[in-house]
Amino acid sequence: MSTQDAEDPQGRVGPFVTYVERVRPDGVVARWDSRRHRKHPSGAPPSGSTWWAPRARGWWIAVLFAVGSLLFALGAVPGYASAVGASWDAVTFFIGSLFFTAAGFLTYREAVDAGPQTPGTARRRLFVFQPGRIDWWATAIQLAGTVFFNVSTGVAMVSDLSAQTAHRHVWRPDAFGSVCFLVASALAWFEACHGWAAWRPRSWSWWITLLNLAGSVAFGVSAVAGYISPSTGQLHNAELTNLGTFIGALCFLAGALLLLPERTEDREAQPQPQPRSRRAASAAPDQPTASTSAVYPRGKLPYEVAILLLA
Length: 311
What we know:
By secondary structure, this protein is mainly alpha-helical. Helices cover 59% and strands 5% of the residues.
């Protein structure tokens, strides 16, 4: 559950810290927020406009997720499959999964780059293991889910698959990918809420994570309905499979598009720190955000948090 430290107010979800507040000597309350720290690591104004910023990684994450979601939604429309044929419909899903993987990798790199850098190293490693951070888990699991979808949709392009092959290499990876998306979306939702749930409709991150969680649930329903019998090769419920995929893809599309205004406006929407008493600082914050998570003992801050709060 979400808890707060009596000395330094914190947002926690299980072992993960999602925000920390500390009163500076001048009385100003400084706040470190994991998602905001990841999305705006330098504190500098974002480059480009909301809708066009090809030099910004956050812009590409949004665009790639949006394109992948649009292709999944298109592939789930029965009329589309009838018009282009089953083979091209399968190709549409596979291409969409590649966009998901590209976006998932950039999201993972965003989380890695926001974490502490090993002293004495000039460049960050491509892959790291940071189990104390909730955003590391969320992005790593999401990336794994996209790879499962690559396998599932890639094998599905092959015609005349046996029932056993379809069950093992189409349905199973799809089910694993859906589980990964559901877990990753739940972690991101907990980050945004600084707990198991919250009501923060003024926050871009709250809407983004809510839509992604709803989309992951829909994908899960699609995976269950899309069970392929290993003996007959029959699909359990094609209509429900397509419906779950279509609804889930639309939710992901909406969440991806909201990443664009979050990149440029979410930071400005948060009130600037104002001097207040330590008693007031101990109150739960009203402004939501989410993501990262560094585990540290009470009264001690991880390196990057300490630098921000003492600045």
